[in-house]
Design a protein that fits this description.
This protein is α+β, with helices and mostly antiparallel strands and 478 residues long. Helix content is 61%, strand content 13%.
Length: 478
């Protein structure tokens, strides 16, 4: 009777105390506040005043309108292994959120046992007896999250999940940019190969002409050797460009998630257009770039981990219960079963830990400081990359105009030298010299055209292009 009264008092006490504890709970540790970051009002090398429109507002298929390139990007988004790695890491982070949240719920388990034993009884006859025991229990334990340790742990895990989602968006944007830049570089190599092959054709004609003149005794062997050297140089360039084309195709194949293969081409380099590139407001960079957003989520996680470290200084309060039964069977003796149950509350807390809890707290505070510094660095790098892309656009535009003018002038020089040679007013060295200046200029123009397109790619990436797209929309070209 006394045992029942005691148990009733315990249950009544827990029924009164537990709700009071839950109502009075609090979350220790600092709440997250984004560190102040001052950004400039304009980007360096910005061509005009800031406005709300930005290249980053466009979907990638609106920026890169070559249908073949769009197909390659779609294939990469579907098959690229870096994207699949990022997706798998998101699923890992999502599962860890579930692990952290699970601690807030009662943990229920079971246990069962059975045994059959023989014992030697120290009597005059040294008799032996056998006995069997069996039983089963259900147990429950619930940590009352008074100080918010579990909530802070869940907050940190959720921020890590969001950070991984930002990583995936960053990987996706980088993939789109890398495929586009690689494609434009491939078109430039194709154009440069055409220039080299044209130079080889011209130098072959020169060599044949000089050889005939030398054999007829109308000229010396010097023009023959110079024409041969120019032809050899062009052939060497052709071989080198074919190697670079193969390497570029192999690199693009990996981005597509495929083994090395030939890459289809669409519009030629000359047919590609450079879109207009408004940059938008500088403050929008903080909201659009996946790496900046991910760095902030890392700060949120670090802040929550400081809260966990603070909560570890406080006692852990929990409830536990157990219910079950046990049976005993003794040879030539007692046989029977009986039930067991209990309900209890417990409190456990640190008194002396040798500085472990203090060290954990300082470590997590230092990690918070690290994430703040990393966040600010990420913002600086974002502005650097944007300014670099804008500077490239400005300077490459002037370079392209100058090279186009140079190529046109040198083509006219080649035509004039041929007219002078045909009229007997100049020797063929003048023609050869004009041709030797034309082909490198055409090669440089092709590379500059590609660099202009790649600068647009770099700016799109630096601004956080496609930030309006949902995850499922990235692989849907229009």
């Amino acid at each position: 009777m006394k045992k029942r009264e005691t148990l009733f008092r315990i249950l009544r006490g827990l029924a009164i105390v537990a709700p009071a504890i839950l109502v009075a709970d609090c979350t220790v540790g600092p709440d997250y506040h984004r560190p102040a970051v001052t950004v400039p009002t304009d980007f360096r090398a910005q061509p005009g005043p800031s406005d709300a429109n930005s290249l980053a507002d466009l979907s990638w298929w609106e920026v890169f309108n070559d249908s073949t390139l769009q197909g390659l990007i779609s294939e990469a988004l579907a098959n690229n292994l870096d994207v699949k790695v990022a997706v798998a890491r998101i699923e890992q982070a999502r599962a860890l959120v579930g692990v952290a949240k699970s601690q807030a719920y009662p943990q229920v388990g079971y246990q069962g046992f059975a045994s059959d034993q023989k014992a030697l009884i120290p009597t005059e006859n040294e008799a032996t007896t056998t006995y069997a025991t069996w039983g089963g229990f259900l147990s429950a334990a619930w940590e009352l999250d008074i100080w918010g340790r579990i909530r802070r742990s869940t907050e940190a895990a959720r921020a890590d999940l969001y950070a991984q989602e930002d990583v995936r968006r960053g990987v996706t944007l980088t993939l789109v940019s890398d495929v586009a830049a690689g494609y434009f570089q491939l078109l430039a190599l194709d154009r440069r190969l055409d220039v080299a092959e044209e130079s080889a054709r011209v130098y072959t004609q020169n060599l044949n002409l000089f050889t005939l003149r030398f054999q007829a005794g109308r000229d010396s062997n010097l023009p023959v050797q110079r024409a041969q050297a120019s032809l050899d140089s062009s052939n060497a360039t052709i071989s080198d460009l074919k190697r670079l084309i193969a390497l570029q195709e192999d690199a693009l194949s990996v981005l597509l998630g495929a083994y090395p293969r030939d890459i289809n081409r669409g519009q030629s380099l000359d047919a590609q257009t450079v879109p207009t590139t408004p940059v938008g407001m500088t403050t929008d960079l903080l909201k659009r770039r996946p790496d900046i957003l991910g760095a902030e989520q890392t700060m949120i996680s670090a802040n929550a981990q400081v809260g966990v470290a603070v909560a570890n200084f406080y006692p852990t309060i929990g409830l536990s219960a157990l219910v079950g039964g046990q049976g005993v069977s003794i040879q030539h003796g007692l046989n029977g079963t009986f039930g067991i149950w209990s309900v209890a509350g417990d409190v456990a807390g640190p008194i002396f830990t040798g500085g472990r809890l203090q060290a954990q707290y300082h470590q997590r505070q230092a990690y918070w400081d690290e994430t703040v510094a990393q966040y600010r660095k990420t913002v600086l790098v974002a502005f650097q990359e944007t300014s670099d892309a804008l500077a490239a656009q400005q300077t490459l535009a002037g370079r392209r105009v100058a090279l186009q003018s140079q190529v046109q002038a040198q083509r006219r020089a080649v035509d004039l030298s041929l007219l002078r040679y045909d009229s007997g007013r100049a020797n063929y060295f003048e023609v050869l010299e004009a041709e030797q200046e034309l082909f490198p200029a055409e090669d440089a123009l092709a590379q500059t055209q590609a660099d202009q397109l790649i600068a647009v790619v770099s700016l799109y990436k630096a601004l956080g292009g496609g930030w309006k797209l949902q995850d499922a929309e990235w692989s849907r070209p229009h």
